[in-house]
Write a structure and sequence with these properties.
The structure holds two protein chains of two kinds. Chain A has 26 helices and 14 strands. The longest helix of chain A is centred in the last third of the chain and has 31 residues, at about 615-645. Chain A is of the alpha+beta class. Chain A folds into three domains: about 20-145, Immunoglobulins (Immunoglobulin-like); about 155-645, no CATH class; about 655-745. Chain B is an alpha/beta fold. Chain B has four helices and three strands. Chain B has helices spanning about 20-25, 45-50, 65-75, 90, and strands at about 10-15, 35-40, 55-60. In chain B, helix 2 links the parallel strand 2 and strand 3 (about 55-60). The chains are: A alpha+beta, B alpha/beta. Chains A and B meet through strand 1, strand 2, helix 1 and helix 19 of A and strand 1, helix 1, helix 3 and helix 4 of B.
């Protein structure tokens, strides 16, 4: 019997895979299968089969040329489409066909059952080979149960609320950063301030956590300092609110467009949506809620899953950067953290678009009319839209901080004022809190800076870099210590220790091509996006033009600007190459949101250099390459947006009623849930967070072994089962204590009080 | 043995000289056969596996690297077991 075959179902990304990564247990009594000789088959049909729920299907598909196939289409009644992820790990398929290239043949898809009629429906799966041939995988009948629709506010109201919270986020960090930005340097303040503010917030939150303060409270002190700085006569003279320059305004408009598209897409899923099926977001939200409820260091007797989350996180060495932000946003909005997770991701995405504009302010100094160009290219890039749905909040924050860092590095090299050291130090200090994994990338950028500018100034640059490093450590010593600890934990993980383990841990072996960074191909984490006939012709032409214009532009660049392009491209290129060399597609994917704006700035500079040349032919070549990138980026972004619209949210909306159910029992009670999918189980724990939560199997009602638990008055913790009524046919396995539309809290049928 | 069935573990191994001994040593008793496929590791992986005295252990060496899929296919080929796909009727809800 094959045991390790569920890898293409929803697995956490950081599961502990021992050593070589993969164990396949096989037995003599093999199972007969109806799917043995097929090239596409369905293995599991699961989900919440009720109106408002979803159906989840997993299977495998191969074609003679290998796996994964080009795409798998999943439809309900041949009308509604689902979203399918390819490249699930299937060692059983490999073994059965004796084809090593069938290892990544698994697929997994979900269709929302929002607004379907109750009754029987047909789910149909079809795979498509790379030559376009349809491979039928079969159909399945499902019975969708009736369920009253939960009261949901109109999408436009949810969208407006989301935009309001986004504005709150951006205004908050801009206030934090404006005073220091004005006091320490020049440049477009509306672009510089949010990056410094984001970094100052991280530093303040880390310091505040050391003092037991919640992140929002911690941010009040630097906010007051920022306002005071603006009031000082020296800085007041340098800062007069005025209309942004044309290039800055266009950059702000590009970021605004990204924000609006992202808001429309996210709000279409309802309020407080979190997309993506890994368990990163729920962990960040649980940490944020724990901080808001019990403070950064929860007391030892803090009850339940959420109460113990921060202790658990610190023990595991998890970086809290994203959680600090979620905590402050949630507290400021008066909601729980899940309700602002998408806002935080969207806000970080907006900062990445703004970051392209900020860098362009310096890199495109000779082309002031085109400073908006990199921001525009970033705003239509499919990678940034995909990050709204893949829970990579940390890598978006890293990208935003790095862009601010790169801008201020360039300022540090050219500014006469020694104060230019301060913003670099602030941004570097924040990196330890928000994303220590990327710190080597920052160091490479620092080294490359030495080659920009006159050789005579190199000594000064070295001294300033050294001062920035020392100052950054002094600004955020707790973050530095935590960051080093987190790095040590990561490097010690057995799941990342070997090449094969790294390949498997991210659930995919796929490294997206650099065309996705350029925007000409849609980004997918699992397999190449299908191109279609026209784009399969245009994309190679676009790639050739990009290479030609880049080489031509490089040839025309003065030496100093060559080093500037190197500083923009090499740090992230090296990081991508290292992950490629390490066989680590997950790590590779984390750098893509940063690669987008950096590439956009570098390519804009190269193309504008070519366009500024004397020949009409080269001018036309540069314009054509930019146009083609823009034209191809739009359908690529649309492809990703369509996928996001079809995505089933990370947590079932019915979970929102779980806190009210949990409130009906004592805090010491243990709540048992039946949810085999890890990420969904974590979400249930989050929503039942005031109590301890463990699992049971509804098939056997087998109880887990109890660990030590707080005693009730009779000295024994009570146990209740949390039963999904939509999955229950027949009676509940005990007396109902409380019920919501979708869930019932039931006394443990095998005895409510257990030892 | 689990429920009367023989259990084998296939370990595709590449550049794991530091970890391999610990993994093989941690194999539970119910595992009847441990098949390590050294995928042409340039380090001492094969040497270390060769030095482990466990009667359940079998080492297969690739002359050249074939990737995790190739190593796994060799490992499965090294068993006497019949390997079939999932039984839909058993696991479908």
């Amino acid at each position: 019997m094959i045991r390790k075959t569920s890898a293409n179902s929803r697995r956490p990304r950081r599961i502990a895979i021992p050593l070589a990564g993969l164990l396949a247990l096989v037995g003599q009594a093999a199972i007969a299968s109806a799917a043995e000789d097929r090239s596409c088959a369905v293995n599991v049909v699961n989900g919440v089969l009720a109106v408002g729920g979803f159906v989840e299907v997993t299977g495998f598909a191969v074609e003679p040329g290998g796996a994964p196939v080009s795409k798998v289409q999943l439809t309900l009644d041949r009308s509604r489409s689902g979203e399918v992820s390819l490249a699930g790990l299937r060692p059983d398929v490999l073994a059965h066909f004796n084809r090593p290239d069938f290892l990544w043949s698994g697929w997994s898809g979900r269709i929302s059952l929002e607004k379907v009629t109750p009754g029987r429906h047909t789910v149909e799966m079809t795979a498509y080979s790379h030559s376009g041939e349809a491979i039928p995988c079969g159909t399945r009948e499902i019975q969708v149960l009736a369920a009253a629709s939960p009261p949901e506010r109109p999408a436009r109201v949810i969208a407006l609320e989301m935009l309001g919270r986004l504005a709150l986020f951006l205004a908050g960090i801009s206030i934090l950063g404006l005073g220091p930005a004005v006091a320490t340097g020049r440049g477009p303040m509306s672009l510089r301030a949010p990056f410094l503010g984001l970094a100052i917030f991280a530093i303040a939150a880390e310091a505040g956590a050391g003092l037991g303060l919640r992140p929002l409270v911690s941010a009040l002190f630097p906010a007051a300092v920022s306002v005071l700085l603006l009031a000082l006569p020296g800085t007041r003279r340098r800062w007069k609110p005025r209309r942004p320059a044309a290039g800055t305004l266009a950059t702000l408009i590009c970021a605004g467009l990204f924000a609006v598209v992202g808001t429309v897409v996210l709000s279409s899923h309802g309020e407080g949506v979190v997309l993506g099926d890994i368990d990163d977001a729920v962990r960040e939200c649980s940490m944020a809620d724990s901080m808001n409820r019990y403070g950064p260091t929860a007391p030892a007797d803090a009850p339940g899953y959420v109460g113990g989350m921060m202790r658990e996180a610190r023990r595991a060495g998890l970086r809290p950067g994203g959680s600090y932000l979620l905590s402050a946003l949630a507290q400021a909005s008066g909601v729980r953290a899940h309700a602002v997770h998408s806002v935080a991701a969207l806000g970080a995405g907006v900062l990445v678009v703004l970051g392209a504009g900020l860098l362009a302010y310096r890199a495109l100094r000779r082309f002031p009319r085109f400073r908006w160009l990199p921001a525009a290219l970033a705003a239509v890039n499919s990678i940034l839209y995909a990050t709204l749905a893949n829970q990579h909040l940390g890598s978006l924050l890293f990208a935003a901080l790095f862009l601010g860092f790169a801008f201020h590095l360039l300022e540090l090299a050219r500014s006469r004022s020694a104060l230019a050291v301060v913003p670099v130090a602030i941004l570097a200090a924040a990196a330890w809190t928000d994303y220590p994994e990327g710190i080597a990338t920052w160091a490479v950028a620092g080294v490359l800076l030495l080659f920009i500018g006159a050789t005579a100034r190199r000594r000064r640059t070295i001294l300033r870099l050294a001062a920035a490093a020392v100052l950054s450590a002094a600004l955020n010593p707790i973050g530095l210590a935590n960051g080093l600890r987190s790095l040590s934990k990561i490097s010690g993980q057995s799941a990342l220790a070997t090449p094969y383990a790294r390949e498997i841990v991210g659930d995919t072996h796929y490294f997206p091509s650099l065309n996705v960074v350029a925007g000409t191909i849609a980004y997918r984490e699992d397999a190449p996006a299908p191109l279609g006939r026209v784009r399969s012709i245009l994309v190679p032409i676009g790639s050739l033009l990009i290479v030609a214009v880049s080489l031509l532009g490089w040839w025309k660049l003065p030496r100093r600007e060559k080093w500037l392009v190197a500083l923009l491209v090499l740090p992230v290129a090296i990081s991508l190459a290292v992950n490629l060399r390490l066989h680590f597609p997950y790590g590779y994917a984390k750098y893509l949101p940063l690669a987008v704006p950096l590439w956009a700035v570098a390519f804009s500079l190269l193309a504008l250099r070519v366009a500024a040349g004397p020949g009409m032919a080269t001018h036309g070549l540069a314009v054509l390459s930019l146009l083609l990138v823009a034209v191809l980026s739009l359908p690529a972004a649309r492809h990703v947006v369509t996928r996001i619209l079809r995505t089933v949210p990370a947590y079932d909306p019915g979970y929102r009623a779980l806190p009210a159910l949990a409130a009906t029992v004592d805090r010491t009670a243990i709540l048992s849930v039946d949810e085999p999918v890890r990420a969904r189980l974590e979400w249930m724990k989050y929503f039942l967070g005031d109590n301890r939560v463990d699992t049971y199997s509804s098939e056997t009602l087998k109880q887990p072994t109890l660990t030590a638990a707080p005693a009730t008055t009779d000295g024994k913790p009570r146990r209740f089962l949390v039963v999904d009524r939509r999955k229950t046919s027949g009676g509940l396995p005990g007396a109902t204590v409380a019920a919501s539309r979708d869930f019932a809290l039931v006394s443990d049928g095998s005895g409510a009080v257990r030892p | 043995m689990i429920q009367g069935k023989t259990v084998a573990v296939v370990i595709p191994a590449y550049r794991v000289e530091k970890e391999i001994a610990g993994v093989v040593g941690a194999m539970p008793e119910f595992v009847d056969r441990i098949i390590v496929v050294d995928d042409a590791s340039p380090d001492r992986t094969a040497e270390i596996v060769g030095g482990i005295s466990d009667p359940r252990l079998q080492l297969i060496r690739h002359p050249r690297n074939q990737g995790v899929g190739g190593a796994m296919a060799t490992g499965f080929g090294g068993t006497d077991f019949t390997i079939r796909l999932w039984d839909i009727s058993k696991i479908e809800h």
